[in-house]
C-alpha cells in the first residue's frame, strides 16, 4: 500500500515539473529575451512578422508653418486730419469705412477768425500798394537829394514790413484752403472746406456737427490701403525657414475658407520677450473688408526641404511619445525615442537623425514589435 502511494506521489511530481517546463518553454518562445525597451523574436516570429528595415534616407518634403497676427498699416499710410486754426464743424458726411478720394471735400468748418483773417489780408494788401508807392517816391526823391536818407529808409522799412505781413497772411489762408490770389472784398467767406489728402478709406470719425475743435484735435483718421500689410508673429525656431519673397496664405477666424495670397516683404531682426519675430507681408489683392487691427491666421509653406525621414508606419506612439525600432542584433530590436517633424507623401521627418544614422530602422511591422514588447503578459 505504501509503495503504491509513493509511486502516485512521484508521478504527480513529474507531471508538475513537465507542466512547468512546458509553460516556461512557451513563454520563452514568445519573448525569449525581451526586457525594458528591447524585444527579441524567434525565427518563426520573424518570418510571421515580415519585418522590413532600412537606414535613414533624405527626402524632399514640404512643410507648413501655422502662425497668426493682425492687419497693420505703416505710419506713413495713416493720416490724421485736423484744422490748423481750429473752428466749428458745420457739416460732414463721413462714416467709418467710407471711401474718400484725394482732393475731395470731406468737411465744412466755420469760425469768425476766418473772416478776420481774410479781412486782415485784404487790408494789408491795400496798405502794401500805398507803402510800395511811397517807397518808390522816396527813392526817387532821395536820388535827387530832395528827401533825406532817413525818410527813404523809413519808407523802405514800412514797405518791407507790409510785404512780409501780406506773405505771412497768404500762407495762413492757404493752411485753411483759401486761395489768397482769388480773394477780394466780394467773396469773403465765414466757412472753409477740409479736403482729403489721400485716396483711401475712413477708419475713425472723432467729431460731430457743431463741435468746436482746437488746432491739435483730430477730426478724422484716413488710411491708404495701398501699403496695408499683414504683421505675423513667428517663433524664433521657425524664422530661419523664411525668406523675403516667400508666399503664404492668410485667412480670418470668421471665414476660414476664404484665403488671401500674401508675400513676405520684411523679417524683423528683433526677438520679443515671447520669443517671436515680426514678419511683415504684403497682400497681393487687398480686400477693403479687411480692416487694420483685424486678427488673422496664416499658413507659410516651404517647398522641397531636404530632411532625414522614415516612412510614417516606422514611427510608433506609446504613452504620447514617438519611437523608432532599431535593429541591434539577430532578431533583436531596441525601441528608441524619436523627435518627429514635418510629414508629407507618406514620410516623416526625424529631427534627431544623428541618433539613428547608419543604423537599420524597422520601416514595416514596427507596431507588431510594440505589441510584442508591451503585451508580454497577454501572450
TrEMBL record:
Q: Reply yes or no: does the keyword Transport apply.
A: yes
Q: Which organism is it from?
A: Parafilimonas terrae
InterPro entries given in the database record: Beta-barrel_RND_2 (IPR058792), CzcB_C (IPR058649), MFP_Cation_Efflux (IPR051909), RND_pump_MFP (IPR006143)
Residues of the signal peptide:
1-21
Q: Which residues form the CusB-like beta-barrel domain?
A: 230-302
Which Pfam families does the record cross-reference, listed alphabetically? Beta-barrel_RND_2, CzcB_C
Which positions fall inside the CzcB-like C-terminal circularly permuted SH3-like domain?
A: 309-369
Superkingdom in the source lineage:
Bacteria
Gene Ontology molecular functions: transmembrane transporter activity
Q: Name one GO cellular component term.
A: membrane
> Which PANTHER family does its entry note?
CATION EFFLUX SYSTEM PROTEIN CUSB (PTHR30097), SLR6042 PROTEIN (PTHR30097:SF4)
> What keywords is this UniProt entry annotated with?
Signal, Transport
Tell me the protein's name.
Answer: Membrane fusion protein, cobalt-zinc-cadmium efflux system
Q: Which PROSITE patterns match?
A: PROKAR_LIPOPROTEIN
